[in-house]
Design goal:
Blueprint lengths: L35 H6 L4 E3 L6 E3 L3 E2 L15 H13 L4 E3 L8 H10 L7 E6 L1 E3 L5 E3 L3 H15 L4 E7 L12 H12 L3 E7 L3 H8 L4 E5 L10 H10 L2 E2 L14 H9 L4 H12 L12 H9 L7 H8 L1 H10 L1
Parallel strand pairs: 3-4, 4-5, 5-8, 8-9, 9-10, 10-11
Antiparallel strand pairs: 1-2, 6-7
Helix pairs in contact: 2-3, 4-5, 8-9
Length: about 325
């Protein structure tokens, strides 16, 4: 077993049209969002990854939607994709989530085109563990060689010598699958020792798998399915918060099945917000170690997402929203 630090004891109980492109050094806040400067100072507050010199705003950006339909091939409007990324950075976002199997390769190439050389303080988190078939399928790629190839693909297409954080993606499409991940973690530890990776995270894992990985290396973040309607990881998040480990929910807005709830709609109406803004605000208030990476290919939608960080949910709203998960479970059982 390959380890890169002394194992620590863990005890857990419980994955439009074209928009003009502006040079990076001339970015100014978009006219539709006059509070961009304020958002730079807010964006949900700040979080420092454990054992790392990386501090990010809790409201980040997920780059998956920059690729074409089905997260495959180039976007319909490459210039608009570049504009969204530059607008995000201009609004204060300093945490981008991506992967070279988005496209594949396309998303990282767009990030490089839009932002390289990267601004100081920008943290790019990528992931390995899958590849894309010619039929747009998602294929596990978890052998030692496949993981090494995935890391090098990310390095090449992002145009960097070292990746800030690499998440090991395992499990099924949306839920973890129990089983050892020691061989895969060992492969990333070896790449970390070679200087290709700074920090390691995990995606779509269980608490047991996290504990196994932590016996081999420091884990700085977990990325699992979680949102106001799907709360299987409630206990997991609380345990991670005690360890000061970031929890980054994927599909925070429901993913391929957008969240729909009368309670969500009612709360949004009462706060003069959109349901999606309420769903994001709920996540930010759920726990201080939650970091958000909502994705979009629209500048307007980007600003709507970022504005969710300014939304404070009153106690009565939280009570209604907390009931959504139970209602969702009842519907699934019916």
């Amino acid at each position: 077993m390959v380890c890169d630090f002394e194992p620590a004891h863990r005890n857990y109980r419980g994955w439009a049209g074209a928009i003009p492109i502006r040079p990076m050094n001339k970015l100014e806040p978009n006219a539709m969002n006059q509070s961009a400067t304020h958002l730079k100072n807010k964006l949900g507050g700040k979080f420092t990854f454990p054992g790392a010199s990386m501090t990010v705003n809790r409201m980040g950006y997920g780059a998956m939607q920059l690729a074409g339909p089905g997260v495959f091939g180039p976007p319909r409007d490459p210039d608009a994709a570049v504009a969204v990324l530059r607008e995000a950075i201009g609004a204060g976002v300093n945490h981008i989530d991506t992967s070279d199997f988005y496209g594949p390769h396309v998303t990282n190439q767009i990030i490089k085109k839009a932002l390289h050389p990267y601004p100081e303080g920008l943290v790019i988190v990528t992931k390995v563990g899958a590849r894309r078939g010619n039929d747009k399928s998602w294929i596990p790629a978890l052998s030692r060689q496949e993981l090494a190839d995935g890391v090098r693909d990310n390095l090449r297409n992002l145009g960097v010598e070292t990746l800030d954080v690499v998440n090991l993606r395992v499990g099924g499409l949306e839920r973890p699958s129990e089983g050892s991940i020691a061989d895969q973690v060992a492969a990333l530890v070896e790449l970390k020792r070679k200087g290709l990776i700074r920090h390691i995270g995990l995606s779509n894992v269980s608490p047991t798998q996290l504990e196994q990985a932590q016996s081999m290396t420091k884990i700085v973040c977990i990325q699992n399915l979680y949102n106001v309607a799907h709360r299987d990881d409630d206990d997991f998040i609380d345990g991670l918060a005690r360890e000061e480990i970031a929890y980054v929910p994927f599909f925070p807005l429901g993913g391929f099945n957008p969240l729909q709830s009368s309670a969500l709609d009612d709360v949004a109406k009462s706060l003069d917000a959109t349901p999606m803004q309420v769903a994001l605000a709920w996540l930010l208030q759920r726990s201080p170690n939650i970091l958000l990476i909502p994705g979009t290919s629209s500048v307007q939608h980007l600003h709507e997402n970022l504005a969710a960080a300014e939304l404070t949910l009153p106690a009565e709203a939280l009570t209604r929203l907390d009931a959504i998960s139970a209602e969702s479970e009842q519907l699934q059982k019916a």
